[in-house]
Amino acid sequence: MDSDIVPIERVHGGNSKDTSNKYDIVIIGAGPVGLLLSTCLARWGYKIKHIDNRPEPTKTGRADGIQPRSLDLLRNMGLKPAIMAHKPAKVYEVAFWDPSSTTKGIHRTGTWASCPSFIDARYPFTTLLHQGMIERVFISDLNKNGVDIQRPWTIKGFKTDKTDSEYPVEVNLEHVEGKGRETVRAKYLFSGEGARSFVRDQLKIGIKHKDPIAHVWGVMDGVVKTDFPDIKMKCTIHSDHGSIMVIPREDSMVRLYIQIASSTDKDWNPRKTATEEEVQNSAKKILQPYSIEWEQVEWYSVYPIGQGIADRYTLDHRVFMGGDACHTHSPKAGQGMNTAFLDALNLAWKIHHVESGFASRSILESYEPERKLVAENLLNFDAKYAALFSQKAPATKDVAAATESKKDVEDENQFVKTFKESCEFTSGYGVAYDPNVINWSPSHPAQSSIIHPKGTKLRTGRILINSNVTRVVDANVVHLEQEIPLNGSFRIYVFAGKPELTQRALQDFADGLKKKSSFFSTYLRPDISTVSHHEQHNPHSWLYTFCTIFSSKRSAIEISRDVPDVLARYRDHVYADDIWDHRVADAKAAAHAKMGLDEERGGVVVVRPDGYVGIVVGLAEGSTTVDALNGYFGAFCSKVLGERKSHL
Fold first, then answer.
1. Preceding peptide of 55 cis, ω within 30°
2. Which of 117, 135, 303, 404 has the most CB atoms lying inside 10 A of its own CB?
3. How far apart are CA 424 and CA 429, in angstroms?
């Protein structure tokens, strides 16, 4: 998506010029989780009070890895160009170095892709950039939407009461130097404060430490002079003198992680530290026979890391937490910022749908189980990942097998299986949400024989599969999953098969949408009569955006003839499925085939506002397709849909 189509329209209708002390949300902490939540809600028109206890954004250090799925998200938000303008390092491969049995020092034992080809990623690399630069990209966007981070302020107390039912949370704020105090009321309070969360402590929410082993790490960012050949790659290095991780950074910098102490050590001390010089000397020994010298050290820190997860993410669905306030783990896998991003995105769209009147408040109950499951998987993976890299070097044949694009090999050993699982998880594409009202399963209230049609490869609760199609209006080849920006809307993809075979089914679908009791008609925009002709994404409602994809060549598609008027209003979202894809080499309609939908008869895919599949339905003649969708939306929407009542 081009940067000039960043969605900045006021969706919710909040008044950013309102000077009262009442806010839609108060956000504590301007790290990755707080900034992404604030950015989404600001774009969608909410009044936000956002504070941070630091006088300025991160100057040095902290998180720096953006994984492939997160880069997809940033692109969908229109922020990727600003990120890439800083010329970050890109990690395509990981190198492993171990003690040599024939010579003194270390030698390379293998390399493999950071994001192997069996993962269908748009950006098969990790992007490395200083967290402060990433923060400033978000802050700039917030400023455009009328939100300034209030610094340096902190939270001193809060309570939820019935004094004001619309703004039930009272929050007490104070300048860190005591120069001012404020008491405000809000609909929601969010803690993105990090591991030492005041909000979590006040709620008396405990942290469970899943792995009893804790570590003290030293981390150093700087510019080095070295003859080590893989200094521009991510490396895990084991030697007789210890272990170290090398991560390339922007501006010719390198980050080194070195484990200083472990709770398994006989003289374990969680407060153990090391000087900058001591860490540099350790690195010199570990890298032998190669040399390394520091021309500049930008940042150095020693800190303890333990695996921990909060018992709860919210107690009342008014006060929420996310990011490091909920989960901590080792820095090895580069997951902290990426997990925080998805915490924020998950909560943002659910708050938006509740406050816009689309969804029942019960949808907020899905935030904790969805995101806590991911955090638990992350901690389990983190321990497995650490163990994988602590073992002896993998054999050459295992490295080769692990990088094969064929995913289903019967005689895979444990190393290969672990590696593949790890790659999917670290890339971000391995996130999977369990069934609930927004992720269909056979136990969902929506029941129909055409739901989850036979052969579909899509899994509810998983990210939509990437595909390339041709946009009919201008013949541009585009990435289908990126065509709808992050606008807070459900994305409804109508895979329309061959027009000559689906004409009746498509017209019946359109007629069903126009019925008064359908999800489509129930949530029409109140200003629909004055919506601009040029509105591409939400001409009818903020609840949904439609895309129609035909299994035909672009030259054979005529929108006025082939697309019913309701769907034709989204003329910029009509596509030809005519781009070949090597992953389905024999398919005539690759996008249909990748989704596992009939290339002639198609199907309908509903994708949540955060990009995860909600339900897949067949495209059939009669009312059954719309009936099935009414059943799906009716399970969580705020109004009665179709012939059956909403399940609230």
1. no
2. 135
3. 6
255 touches 112 (CB < 8 A) = no
Do 292 and 105 touch, CB atoms closer than 8 A?
A: no
How far the first Cα of the chain sits from its last, in Å, is 36
Cα–Cα distance measured from residue 441 to residue 608, given in angstroms and rounded to the nearest whole number: 15
pLDDT at position 1 = 36
Mutual angle of helices 336-355 and 32-43, in 10-degree steps? 30
pLDDT at position 236: 86
* Coil/strand/helix, residue 81: helix
Cα–Cα distances in Å, from 5 out to 23, 418, 485, 491? 27, 40, 8, 17
**382 contacts: CB under 8 Å, gap ≥ 6:** 211, 307, 329, 330, 332, 333, 335
Overall size of the chain counted in residues: 648
DSSP symbol at 480? G
Among the listed residues 283, 302, 299, the one whose alpha carbon sits nearest the alpha carbon of residue 226: 283
Q: Which two tokens stand for residue 381?
A: 């993976």
Distance CA 224, CA 210 (A): 37
Secondary element (H or E) of residue 562: helix 559-562
Report the alpha-carbon distance of residue 288 to residue 284 in Å, rounded.
7
In single-letter form, the type of residue at position 226 comes to: T
pLDDT in tens, 525-537: 999 999 999 999 9
Closest by alpha carbon to 645, among 353, 446, 450?
A: 446
Once rounded to an integer, what is the mean pLDDT over residues 313-338? 88
Task: Centre a 10 Å sphere on the Cβ of residue 133 and count the other Cβ atoms it contains.
Answer: 17
- Closest C-alpha to 98, from 354, 393, 380: 393
Nearest 5°: the CA angle 642, 545, 490 is: 70
Q: Nearest-5° angle of CA 98, CA 99, CA 101?
A: 125
